[in-house]
Write a structure and sequence with these properties.
29% of the residues lie in helices and 0% in strands. It is built from 2 helices and no strands.
């Protein structure tokens, strides 16, 4: 389980550590993601990133930003 999951360490054991009152100092203040946000991120990575080419196409850029005229997509062929 990632340490940034809401409730990590305090509601759910993380990396085989027992549930405790507060998260360890080295992981506090980093923000948190909900389980749904983590699921959405994993789905996005699986569909669009993992196992794909290192080269981003204009179509992929447009799908990410919502349109092909976005400044980031302008230089792509």
């Amino acid at each position: 389980m990632p340490f940034f999951l809401k409730g990590a360490y305090t509601a759910t054991s993380c990396w085989n550590t027992p549930v405790q009152e507060e998260a360890p100092a080295e992981v506090t203040g980093l923000g948190s993601l909900s389980a749904d946000a983590i699921d959405a991120l994993v789905a996005y990575l699986g569909a669009r990133i993992i196992g794909k080419s290192d080269t981003i196409t204009k179509a992929e850029c447009a799908a990410y930003f919502g349109n092909a005229t976005h400044p980031t997509c302008a230089a792509l062929d």
